[in-house]
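Protein modeling request. Please complete all fields; requests missing the sequence field cannot be processed.
Requester role: graduate student
Desired output: 3D structure, token encoding
Chains: 1
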Amino acid sequence: MKKKIYIILFTFLGILLQLLIHGLVETWYIGFLIGNFPKYSFGFSWSQWFTIHHIGTVVLFIAGVLFGFWQGKFWWKRIYEKN
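Delivered output (83 residues):
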């Protein structure tokens, strides 16, 4: 039971980490888009950028879950299991 909680909490930590990264990258790049849209839009419209945002959100969420799960299993084995 302790191992499951440990891995679930690490997975939650991965979700929080991806949320932080997602927010920082979007805030940074939206600043460029608002400042000079024709230069930084790569020819995409705002609606296409919204689609890119939604796809990126799903990809980052899945990456955060997988990373957290992997790290939870890794550190559980490294700290609590004797070799």
